[in-house]
Amino acid sequence: MKRRSILLLVALAGLAGCADTGATVPDVSASAVPADGYTWPLRESDLAAGFCFTLVQDLTPKQVIDRLGGKELERVEWPQLVGPGDGEVDASQRYFVGLARLGDWTVIVEDAGELGVTREIVRPLSKGRSLFAYRSDVAGHGRLLVLQDGEVLLDFDSVAPERWGGSRPGDFVPAMRAAGLIGGTDVTEPTGPALSFLADRTGIALTRELLTERTYLLVTVPK
Predict the structure, then answer these.
(1) What DSSP string runs through 85-153?
(2) Is the dihedral of CA 168, 169, 175, 177 positive or negative?
(3) pLDDT in tens, 102-119
(4) What percent of the chain has pLDDT over 70?
(5) Does 8 score more than 50 pLDDT?
(6) In a domain, 50, yes or no
(7) Whole-prediction pTM value?
(8) Is residue 4 part of a domain?
């Protein structure tokens, strides 16, 4: 995340009460999202260096922070979360991520980050539940990761789609084909199909409106 210099001695007492606040998710089915509704990150200048969206089931933001060993900094709006700043403090040692509640899920948002697809970091988050993550890099290549109860079920990289990882990748073939991630032609733009796949599997349509209208807890997580 292209985060700006932040005073790390932020008073967290006021944040503790809002970290676990749930958020109603608009009733938008995947089929109701327009064709370009999942490709919006590719048109966002603030996400030009890449992004990662992670969905964690049945954990509040506060619980996610605790499992990651993270530290709350402040509550921010979308422009503050992904917008340009004057540089991260100790970015080589920490991830800067944003957390928000979406119904029964917590979403972790990163610009140019990769926490969500770093197995050793997110594995504890999936204990007893499901976790889905999608990362797009600066070149538009995509990586899709699915975990359940600490087990990596699917690890799909659009750069090498023939080399799937995970213990049960075949379970996801129908949904991936339906979303357009795999099929008769090479996938040159995986973001739209990947976010469609996430919507199908989680019920959360990560549209621009859904994410940009939320407020987030800005959190640092050790690398």
Answers:
(1) -S--SSTTTEEEEEEEEETTEEEEEEES--GGG-HHHHGGGGTTSEEEEEEE-TT--EEEEEEETTEEE
(2) negative
(3) 999 999 999 989 999 999
(4) 80
(5) no
(6) yes
(7) 0.86
(8) no
